[in-house]
Amino acid sequence: MNVIKTKISGLYILEPRVFGDERGWFMESWSKRIMDEAGIHVDFVQDNQSYSADKGTLRGMHYQCGDKCQAKLLRATRGSIFDVAVDLREGSPTFGQWEGVELSAENKRQFFIPRGFAHGFLTITDDVEVQYKADNYYAPEADAGIRWDDPTIKIEWPFAPTILSDKDEKAPHLESRRDIGIRYEG
User: How many CB atoms lie within 10 A of CB 75?
Assistant: First the structure.
């Protein structure tokens, strides 16, 4: 597996080695050993899966606060998404900056997002399934979010979303967000 550092400390793009022949293909989608060697130490406790029927569906930008924060490892197992993480760690030199990557069933890339980030994605095809691991359980009382189109963050989405939840449509701007409770450790 190729572990690619991004411009934001702690965010990684993972490219698995895919072995194919006339029968199909095989890949390792997770290896604790490889992650440990890359300095990514996480104990996943929950797997999640979402389905979006239509291109242009936006899910995000979500996060959990305090000791309920979650690190995530995401991949698209059907279709394609533009996946985004925004740094919300207090004291981070990249606070408020974002990183985005296309994840698809075809490219098999994965995105590792540590605790302290808002996360969201836009479906860029119809019929999309996304699977992800989380290192903390979902906690509704710690749930928070920020605007997907916040003018101070300036995420460059491939196109404007056409389908959003009420929660995502009404999310606050970065300046009025709840404190995430994670400090940058550099």
Answer: 23
